[in-house]
Specification:
This protein has helices at about 10-20, 25-30, 85-90, 110-120, 135-145, 155-170; strands at about 1-5, 35-40, 45, 55-60, 60-65, 75-80, 85, 100, 105-110. The chain has about 180 residues and is of the alpha+beta class.
Length: about 180
Amino acid sequence: GVKLDIMNNKELKLVENKLGIQSNILETWKKKFEIKYFKIGEVILNNTSISKSILILLEGKVRLRGISNSEKILSLAVIESPEIIGFASNLLQKPIEIATAGSDCIFLSISIEEWDGFKKGIKESDSIFSQKKIDLSELWFLFNSLLKEVELPEDPRELKRFLKNYQKAVKIFDNYEEF
């Protein structure tokens, strides 16, 4: 991926429009952000290292992949903006996310150290950052490492549908009171 140092006005506008973050909030954070570009087919995240940043897809499509217990690489889903990648691997401290650019992509990159502060600095209720669904890479990891007796569909299209349906059925709670 190609990196640029300082966000220009066009990039700030893109972030503002795609994520619904007010420009005054973006102003205070823009020096801590990076815009990253990936060309179609490029590897964005791999299973050999944990991402040092959270990547928010602003434009393009990303193919999430997973490795089966038989070491086969499978396509789990194609995601479109706005979506977050890099968070599940950091949460579990395992490089469980494998992502490649399904088209030319633009990401907002935020270092893992800045992530919580950034999330608190924006109104979560109406943003994509209130993560209320389980990450597909995390779901795949759980199926392969903990829920081994689950029969997974062989057909790639059926597998994607199965994972999407499971993702919709899983509820995420921020705290015990919410639960």
